[in-house]
Amino acid sequence: MPKLSWWKFLTIAIMFYVAWMGFMGKVPRLPILNETVRNLYFHVPMWFGMILIFLASAWYSIQYLRTGNLDHDVRAGTHAEIGIVFGLLGITTGMVWARFTWGEYWSNDPKQNASAVGLMIYMGYLLLRGSVSSVRDRARIASVYNIFAFAVLIPLIYILPRYTDSLHPGNGGNPGFNPYDQARHMRPVFYPAVLGWTLVGFWLANLLVRYKIIKNNYLSQ
Amino acid sequence: MIYRILNLLFFFLATMEAYGQGAVNSIEMADKFRQDGKIYVVVATVMLILAGLFAFLIWLERRIENLEQKQK
After folding, report:
1. Number of folded domains that form chain B
2. A66 with A135: CB under 8 angstroms?
3. Least CA distance to B42: which residue of chain A?
4. Domain span at residue B18?
5. Domain assignment of residue B33, yes or no
6. B10 vs chain A: nearest CA distance in angstroms?
7. Residue B72 domain-assigned (yes or no)
8. Residues B68, B42: one domain?
9. How many helices (H) and strands (E) does chain B have?
10. What is the mean pLDDT of residues A65-72?
11. What are phi and psi for residue A100, nearest 5 degrees?
């Protein structure tokens, strides 16, 4: 048994709690949504997790620019990769949910389109990293791009869709997840679900970062 | 008189409640699925998958930890 940080034990505990309460907990009876409202514990945390992981990525990019320590650049790149995984899971699970509540997998909804554009911006970041061979240049250029990418992502998926009509809850002028407002017994599951899934993302990123640092040390020996 | 009004009010509220219940209960949920009790099977499956995933992550932890030790 390897030494595990305390937050990894917390992750395991929260995820088992979410797996149990996600199916067995009480949910409100709402038309159209029916039992699919439980997706709040699985689909929505993908996006919350993605944003928090991208925030960490932007933070590490700032740290790289401040210190010039290449490990920070490795961390920034890895967190962006894990964030994209969460984003892709968010967009595909959103499509499945949309098929049974909005009628179509993809209805060119502002929220869907903006999420797709946001993910492409981050894929551009990975493309940029892959296309510069000088380690120092790559780290510097990618860090600046990454900070701008995060600055664009927030208005793109959290602010702009609110100005238009969207099928997605919390858009079209009204913030918050209003259809679930009556669901006070969903919150004790929803917030841990967000935390748990986010921590799963950070755990994956943590392993990948350590692997890459070992590899870089080995290659530079 | 006052009793009559209260009586009326009581029955009015009582039927309101019943109507509200009817509307809420007409929304389909997985009630039958839960009555059968077999939802536990799904929960057990998900938990086993989670357990497997976490076991795998811990296995990765160990391998990476070993490499980190060797490089020191």
Report:
1. 2
2. no
3. A23
4. 1-28
5. no
6. 26
7. yes
8. yes
9. 3, 0
10. 96
11. -100, -5
